[in-house]
C-alpha cells in the first residue's frame, strides 16, 4: 500500500508498514500534538487566531474557520493536480482512497477521470447534503450550545459567501484541467465514485442518511497500538474506575478547559489518564500522584479499560470510545464537533457541556451521572460496541471497494 502525503507524517506511514510518496496538500501539517511555533511562517499566527476564537464561543470559532477556508482547502490546485497525476502514473494503483477534505487531490482525480473512494474521516456533516445545508454551519447543535438565531443567520451568510467563492475557484481549476467538465453548483457537496463515512450509521440522523446517496458507513477504524509497559502497570495497579481525558492534538492548548476538568475529577474516587498535549501539567493545578499524566497517551488501549471518556468530540475520539462501549462527556470547541456532540446527546450515549463556561461543579455532576449505571444507555453502548468490533471499519471499506455499494 502506498500513501501519498507530506513528510511530517512519514514516520506514521512507515509505522503502519506502508510506503510513502511525497505529496503536500496544504500549508500546515498535523503529525501529532500541534504547537503554533512548529507551523510554517504565517500558519503559526493563523493557529493562534483559531485558538483565541475558540475562547469566544462556537460562532466566533466557525466564522474564523470559514474565513480561513477561503484559501486553505483548495490549496495550489493546478500544481497539486499535476503531482497527483504523476503519483497515479508512477504507482498504477488498483484502488484510490482520498480524504474528503483533500479537495485539491479530489479535484485532480476527478479531472483526470481516475475512479476513487472518497473517505469522510470526520463527522458526516463534512459533506453537505440537500439545499438547506451549507458547509461550515453545523446541521444540528447540542442543547447547551445552540447559539442565538441572529448569530446563526450571520454565520450562514458568511458560510454561503465562502461556499460561492470556493465553488467558483473549484470550477475555474476544473475547467483548466478538463475543459469539458460540467460546473459544480456547490463544490462542498461533491463526492468521489465511492462514498465511505468513518462513522457509525446508528448515530446518524435517519433523515439525513436518506439524502446521502449511495454510501457505506464504516463505523470506526480503530487502530492497534504497541504495548506500553508504564500504562499496563498503571492499569493493573488498582480497580478504581478509569476516566480518560483528552482534548486532542490541536485543542489540548486550551489549558483552561483541561484545568477545570482536572478540578472536577480531583476529589472523585477514580483514576484519571490525562493526555495534556501542548499544555504543561503545571498549568492544571495539583494533580493526584496516582493519575497517569503524559503529553500523549495510547488512547485506544486506555479506552478499552475506561468507564468514561472526557473529550472535545473529535471524530476519532468519539468512534474509538464507542467501539470500546464507553460513554462520553463532550466539550466541543470547533468544526464538526458540535454536530457530533448533538448526535451523542440525541442517542443518549453521552452528555454535552459548554467548555467555555461550565464550572468544575457542573462537570463533576455530569461525570458522576455518566459513571452511574444506566440500563438503557449501557445496553445501547454494548450493542453498538459489539457491532463496531464484529464488523470493523477496514472490513467494511474493503467490501465497499471490492463489491460496490448498492444504489
What's this, in brief?
By secondary structure, the protein is an alpha/beta fold. It has helices at residues 10-15, 43-56, 58-72, 77-91, 103-112, 149-177, 206-209, 229-236, 248-251, 255-265, 299-303, 315-323, 337-347, 360-371, 375-390, 393-403; strands at residues 2-5, 19-22, 97-99, 117-120, 194-197, 216-217, 242-246, 271-275, 292-294, 308-311, 328-330, 350-352.
Any idea what the CATH architecture of the largest domain is?
3-Layer(aba) Sandwich
Q: Write the CATH fold name of the largest domain.
A: Rossmann fold
Shape: globular
Let me know the number of strands: 12
CATH domain class of the largest domain: Alpha Beta
Strand order, sheet with most strands = 9-8-7-10-11-12
What are the low-pLDDT stretches, counting only 5+ consecutive residues below 50? 34-42
The whole-angstrom Rg is: 21 Å
**Individual helix count:** 16
What average pLDDT do the residues reach? Answer: 93
Give the topology string: H per helix, E per strand: EHEHHHEHEHEHEHEHHEEHEHEHEHHH
Task: Determine the N-to-C terminus distance.
Answer: 28 Å
User: What is the structural class?
Assistant: alpha/beta
- Main sheet record: 6 strands, parallel
Query: How many structurally independent domains?
Result: 2
| Helix share, percent | 40-55%
SS strand fraction: 5-15%
Amino acid at each position: 500500500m502506498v500513501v501519498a502525503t507530506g513528510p511530517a507524517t512519514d514516520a506514521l506511514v512507515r509505522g503502519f508498514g506502508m510506503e510513502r510518496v511525497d505529496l503536500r496538500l496544504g500549508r500546515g501539517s498535523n503529525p501529532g500534538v500541534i504547537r503554533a511555533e512548529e507551523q510554517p511562517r504565517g500558519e503559526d499566527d493563523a493557529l493562534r487566531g483559531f485558538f483565541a476564537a475558540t475562547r469566544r464561543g462556537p460562532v466566533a470559532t466557525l466564522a474564523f474557520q470559514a474565513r480561513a477556508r477561503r484559501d486553505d482547502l483548495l490549496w495550489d490546485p493546478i500544481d497539486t493536480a499535476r503531482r497527483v497525476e504523476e503519483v497515479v502514473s508512477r504507482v498504477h494503483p488498483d484502488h484510490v482512497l482520498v480524504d474528503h477534505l483533500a479537495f485539491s487531490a479530489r479535484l485532480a482525480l476527478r479531472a483526470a477521470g481516475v475512479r476513487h473512494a472518497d473517505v469522510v474521516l470526520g463527522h458526516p456533516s463534512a459533506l453537505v447534503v440537500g439545499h438547506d445545508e451549507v458547509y461550515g454551519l453545523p446541521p444540528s447543535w447540542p442543547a447547551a450550545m445552540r447559539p442565538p438565531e441572529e448569530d446563526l443567520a450571520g454565520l450562514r451568510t458568511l458560510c454561503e459567501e465562502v461556499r460561492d467563492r470556493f465553488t467558483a475557484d473549484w470550477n475555474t481549476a476544473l475547467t483548466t484541467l478538463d475543459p469539458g467538465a460540467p460546473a459544480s453548483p456547490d463544490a462542498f457537496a461533491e463526492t468521489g465514485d465511492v462514498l465511505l463515512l468513518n462513522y457509525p450509521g446508528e448515530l446518524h440522523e435517519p433523515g439525513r442518511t436518506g439524502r446521502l446517496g449511495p454510501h457505506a458507513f464504516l463505523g470506526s477504524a480503530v487502530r492497534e497500538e504497541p504495548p506500553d509497559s508504564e500504562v499496563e502497570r498503571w492499569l493493573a495497579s488498582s480497580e478504581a474506575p478509569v476516566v480518560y481525558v483528552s482534548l486532542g492534538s490541536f485543542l489540548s492548548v486550551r489549558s483552561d478547559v483541561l484545568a477545570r476538568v482536572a478540578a472536577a475529577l480531583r476529589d472523585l474516587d477514580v483514576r484519571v489518564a490525562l493526555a495534556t498535549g501542548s499544555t504543561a501539567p503545571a498549568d492544571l493545578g495539583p494533580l493526584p500522584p496516582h493519575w497517569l499524566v503524559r503529553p500523549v497517551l495510547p488512547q485506544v488501549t486506555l479506552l478499552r479499560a475506561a468507564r468514561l471518556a472526557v473529550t472535545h468530540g473529535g471524530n476519532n475520539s468519539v468512534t474509538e470510545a464507542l467501539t470500546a462501549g464507553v460513554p462520553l462527556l463532550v466539550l466541543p470547541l470547533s468544526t464538526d464537533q458540535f454536530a457530533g456532540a448533538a448526535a451523542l446527546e440525541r442517542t443518549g450515549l453521552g452528555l454535552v457541556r459548554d467548555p467555555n463556561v461550565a464550572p468544575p461543579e457542573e462537570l463533576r455532576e455530569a461525570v458522576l451521572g455518566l459513571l452511574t449505571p444506566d440500563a438503557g444507555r449501557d445496553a445501547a453502548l454494548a450493542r453498538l460496541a459489539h457491532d463496531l468490533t464484529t464488523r470493523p471499519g477496514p472490513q467494511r471499506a474493503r467490501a465497499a471497494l471490492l463489491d460496490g455499494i448498492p444504489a
